[in-house]
């Protein structure tokens, strides 16, 4: 290997890597703070997947349990992490999200450090690390970070693909044949997380093809990887509730362009031309890298593999989901980490060609930073939507642990409530969230509560008591504020957005219902003349614990004086 290559790869690496690592670590901490708010019951397909995991909760999983597919996907690797999370957190969604954030940290560190080889100053290394990390922790991909079960599958496949490409690169550059074996094993692991990982072996095959020394191995790996994809596709059973596969070449092409452009923008009109520009630039850069001999051949091949993985995954998505929402489906939040990898790979491959010329290098970094700015601007609304949904997670966890059955709760859990209720008995037996005894600071239903008679500055009301579809439970809404303080009295931790319990008592001081604070009430904020609006609370009362109509309740919350009653009188209702 030429001395210049080894010098570029090794000299200055320690300081450059350290500076480039600032971005990944900072984004990791921010992502942790945000996603920890999605604590509580997991989401969506987790409940159907749980059926195949129930028999493995008290021991080692069997292969038959691991290879029961999620929809049509092999997710054996993801299931192992679901089981790990059950043993660590009782199955809490926050554990799943933390795993996803940890996966993303490894990806961001790997790509930032690889990219930092092109930096000629500390500032360049810092900007590169931040830019790469914002793509990896893409706000457009909020779905995968807040719905941890999804992120473990998608980002787990991304992680092992990136590590496979890294192992292949280091093996080629340092003449370590065993590294190729490691790369193949990592690519095989990627294929066990989700269907996108099926293309990992093909990706490192393309990587091998880019250099003379590894070209034969690359062709072999690509052929084996393609045969594996075809084999899985032939024996893969498309669920009856999914549309048939789409093989229309025009529709596939438009889907792929939208998919790639969707790594930065959120509208089809902008994504298609942006995707076309990205694919066109990639073709030109790959051509230069293949036909231009130089010391950066192995590094360029690494970035080409990252791009190839994303593009091939877009093709699989186009075939499998093109008939389920059309090109607009390509902009789904759950896909966004894949086109993000494409754009990182594109800028990485471009840097291999221009890194020696200061102006060109700085210009490419500036364009990369501009793309990141667009990404953040377009992705922030998705994060805000995810945070808004996450605010109800604790509430749903508390109420489901009581046995409340109300479709309104499912907006925080799954769009198909029957999937959760189908496994609720198994969750209860295994003490899986929401039945793991999480302490919200609430008294037990039926307990007697001593109410303080000390004067306090509380104000608030029970606004509504309404019926639910379950005749046993009624929903209660209201608000509470402290006339002497800006913070809501039910706020427990402002950074993590945790809230205290509110209890509902009958005339005898018996707890007949429970709820949590944290609901937004703009009308209350306006009336109080305050900027924050999280003074609302919501809960449920067990009608079986109340006498026949007219029923009467009042609300109490925990203060420094003990359980304290809201100043309003009891409220009555007739149903």
From TrEMBL:
The chain crosses the membrane at residues 16-38, 94-118, 125-146, 152-169, 181-206, 218-235, 247-265, 271-291, 300-320, 340-356, 363-380. It comes from the Bacteria. Keywords: Membrane, Transmembrane, Transmembrane helix. This is Mlr7554 protein. It comes from Mesorhizobium japonicum (strain LMG 29417 / CECT 9101 / MAFF 303099) (Mesorhizobium loti (strain MAFF 303099)).
């Amino acid at each position: 290997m030429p001395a210049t290559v080894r010098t570029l790869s090794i000299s200055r690496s320690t300081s450059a890597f350290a500076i480039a690592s600032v971005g990944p670590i900072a984004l990791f901490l921010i992502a942790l703070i945000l996603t920890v708010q999605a604590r509580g019951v997991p989401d969506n397909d987790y409940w159907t997947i749980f059926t195949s995991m129930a028999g493995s909760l008290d021991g080692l999983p069997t292969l038959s349990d691991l290879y029961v597919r999620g929809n049509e996907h092999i997710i054996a690797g993801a299931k192992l992490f679901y089981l790990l999370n059950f043993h660590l957190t009782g199955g809490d969604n926050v554990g799943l999200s933390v795993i996803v954030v940890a996966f993303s940290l490894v990806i961001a560190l790997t790509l930032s450090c690889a990219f930092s080889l092109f930096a000629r100053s500390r500032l360049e290394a810092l900007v590169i690390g931040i830019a790469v990390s914002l793509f990896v922790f893409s706000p457009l991909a909020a779905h995968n970070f807040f719905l941890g079960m999804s992120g473990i599958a998608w980002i787990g496949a991304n992680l092992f693909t990136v590590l496979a490409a890294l192992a292949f690169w280091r093996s080629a550059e340092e003449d370590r044949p065993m590294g190729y074996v490691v790369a193949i094993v990592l690519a095989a692991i990627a294929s066990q997380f989700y269907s996108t990982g099926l293309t990992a072996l093909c990706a490192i095959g393309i990587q091998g093809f880019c250099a003379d020394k590894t070209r034969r191995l690359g062709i072999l790996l690509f052929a084996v990887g393609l045969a594996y994809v075809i084999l899985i596709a032939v024996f893969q059973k498309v669920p009856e509730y999914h549309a048939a596969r789409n093989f229309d070449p025009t529709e596939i092409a438009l889907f792929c362009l939208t998919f790639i452009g969707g790594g930065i923008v959120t509208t089809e009109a902008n994504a298609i031309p942006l995707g076309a520009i990205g694919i066109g630039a990639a073709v030109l850069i790959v051509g230069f890298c293949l036909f231009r001999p130089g010391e950066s051949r192995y590094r360029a091949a690494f970035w080409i593999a990252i791009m190839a993985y994303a593009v091939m995954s877009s093709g699989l998505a186009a075939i499998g989901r093109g008939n389920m929402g059309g090109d607009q489906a390509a902009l789904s939040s759950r896909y966004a980490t894949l086109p993000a990898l494409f754009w990182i790979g594109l800028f990485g491959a471009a840097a291999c060609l221009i890194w020696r010329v200061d102006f060109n290098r700085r210009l490419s970094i500036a364009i990369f930073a501009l793309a990141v700015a667009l990404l953040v601007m377009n992705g922030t609304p998705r994060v805000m939507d995810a945070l808004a949904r996450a605010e109800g997670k604790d509430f749903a966890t508390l109420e489901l642990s009581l046995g409340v059955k109300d479709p309104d709760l499912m907006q925080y859990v799954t769009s198909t409530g029957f999937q959760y209720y189908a496994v609720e008995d198994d969750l209860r037996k295994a003490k899986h969230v929401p039945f793991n005894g999480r302490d919200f600071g609430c008294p037990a239903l039926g307990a007697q509560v001593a109410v303080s008679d000390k004067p306090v500055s509380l104000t608030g009301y029970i606004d509504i008591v309404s019926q639910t579809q379950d005749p046993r439970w009624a929903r209660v809404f209201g608000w509470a504020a402290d006339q002497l303080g800006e913070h809501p009295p039910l706020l427990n931790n402002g950074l993590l957005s945790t809230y205290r319990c509110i209890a509902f008592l009958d005339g005898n001081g018996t707890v007949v219902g429970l709820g949590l604070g944290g609901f937004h009430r703009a009308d209350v904020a306006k009336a109080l003349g305050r900027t924050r609006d999280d003074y609302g609370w919501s809960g449920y009362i067990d009608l079986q614990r109340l006498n026949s109509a007219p029923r009467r309740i009042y609300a109490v919350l925990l203060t420094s004086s003990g359980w304290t009653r809201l100043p309003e009188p009891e409220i009555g209702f007739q149903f």
